[in-house]
Design a protein that fits this description.
46% of the residues lie in helices and 23% in strands.
Length: 91
Amino acid sequence: MDKRELVTLAARRSTLTRRQVGEALRAILETMAEAIAAGEPVVLKEFGRFSTWQRRQRIRGFDGQAHEVDKVQLAFKASAVLRRRLKEKSS
């Protein structure tokens, strides 16, 4: 599902227009991105938690050279409610 489909389905479930849902979604995503970039976790109850974590540099094989990797990684942990829904769908 892409953003357009998400906006269309959300508009059908609400009394808002697609334009209003699109603007709200854009504002929510921008706010989440700013918070995550600032190092703050974003927790959406019954959905999950977005956060960042620091990755240590890895050492390459036998030559001992440090391998450059992205130092900040994005992590998502699904909530128990979401994990339960996924488990029910797969059964």
